[in-house]
Amino acid sequence: MIVLMAGLPGTGKTTLARALAGRTGGRVLSKDEFRHALFAPEEIEYSPRQDDFCLQLMMETAGYLLLRNHAKIIFLDGRSFSRRYQIENVIAAADCLHQPWRILECVCADEAIRRRLEADADLGSHPADNRGYPLYLEVKARFETILYPKTVINMDRPLAWCVDRALATLPTAKPNS
Fold first, then answer.
1. Helix (H) or strand (E) holding 103
2. pTM reported for the whole predicted model
3. For a Cys-Cys bond, which of 5, 49, 94, 96 suits 13, CB 3.0-4.6 Å?
4. Is 13 within 8 Å of 59 (Cβ atoms)?
5. Is residue 62 part of a domain?
6. Domain range spanning residue 93?
7. What is the C-alpha radius of gyration for the chain, rounded to an integer number of angstroms?
8. Residue 126: pLDDT band by 50, 70, 90 thresholds?
9. Number of domains in the chain
10. 129: domain CATH number?
């Protein structure tokens, strides 16, 4: 299964993806980690073209892992999936791989996002140098409503609740009761 971790920067996609991978034995493939593994610092663009290229390689990696039974669930992280074509590309690739897909859309309050992004910037703990509140506002302004079936996870709630809510949508995993 391929799970798209959708949502604006700072909503907790990575936190949730890692927790879910830990509970399911799944793998997290991060666009930001792919970008930093592929490109020297001076080559990093944060452009749609480079983002799409990284996602294409992530999908090839997902196919390799899934088809060789190295993973049962792949969590695609590091992209907001703010444009319909981005989601459609993943769905088309999942279909070619004969893999089911799910969309988990992480949301939370603007103030919580601002605090998270500022804390990450202060710590230098995120690999994407362009990640900050201005990017959040930019992506929010152009975010296209996700029209495909999805589960919305309110990341203002405790992480355990969020994990259980997400696990309930994945057929190979069940939440704690």
1. strand 101-107
2. 0.89
3. 5
4. no
5. yes
6. 2-167
7. 15
8. low
9. 1
10. 3.40.50.300
